[in-house]
Amino acid sequence: MPKHKLLTSKTIFLDVTANNYSEVFEYVYERLLKRGYVEASFLDAIIEREKKYPTGLQGVGQVIAIPHAEPANIKKTFIAAVRTAQTVEFMEMTNSGRCLKTRIVFILGLRRSGEQVRILKAIIDNFARKETAAVAFLKARNIAECLEILRPLETDEAIKQ
């Protein structure tokens, strides 16, 4: 089990104003850098990785994006849950030619490569395969409500391993 929580009030960002995924990344990067979660190299690394390996995913009723950067760019493991004010385009992960629009972005900051598959599975199971959590996240009024909605990600057995 992680030594600290992956999701905290410091890694949830609501109603972020952004015109594209680079602006989402920049907004989150500035805050995570100040809070000691990422290296200065994180922003460039996550933008480049998104260009090469798109992360948009069509779920049941909602689109989500699950970008991440390599472990060398991470100081402290985290999941940043982001809700944008308006939809932002991400290319589809399975078909780089298809553009998807979303307001839900989970940015993974993982220090060990092996963590990625388990956490991706937990996010997909809870937010792409079931519409209720995604809709609740979009409707949440504050960070406390978001933490409650996101709690299954912290308690998911896949993440605890």
Instruction: Give the CATH H-level superfamily.
Output: Mannitol-specific EII, Chain A
User: What's the end-to-end separation, in Å?
Assistant: 6 Å
Q: Describe the main β-sheet briefly.
A: 5 strands, mixed
Structurally, the number of domains stands at 1
Compute the CA-based radius of gyration.
Answer: 14 Å
Percent strand equals: 15-25%
Which blocks of ≥5 consecutive residues have pLDDT under 50? none
Report the total helices: 6
Overall strand count:
5
Q: Assign the structural class, choosing from mainly alpha, mainly beta, alpha/beta, alpha+beta, or little secondary structure.
A: alpha/beta
Whole-number mean pLDDT: 91
Helix content: 40-55%
3D shape = globular
- Looking at the structure, the CATH topology is Mannitol-specific EII, Chain A
CATH class: Alpha Beta
User: Biggest sheet, strands in spatial order?
Assistant: 1-4-5-3-2
Report on this model:
This protein has 161 residues and is α/β, with parallel strands linked by helices. It has one domain (9-160): Mannitol-specific EII, Chain A, CATH 3.40.930. The protein contains 6 helices and 5 strands. It has helices at 21-34, 42-52, 115-128, 131-139, 143-155, 157-160; strands at residues 12-16, 56-58, 63-65, 78-91, 99-109. It has a 5-stranded mixed β-sheet with strand order 1-4-5-3-2, with helices on both faces. β2 and β3 (63-65) form a beta hairpin. α1 runs antiparallel to α2. The radius of gyration is 14 Å and the shape is globular. The protein starts with 11 loop residues before the first strand and ends with a helix. The mean pLDDT is 91.
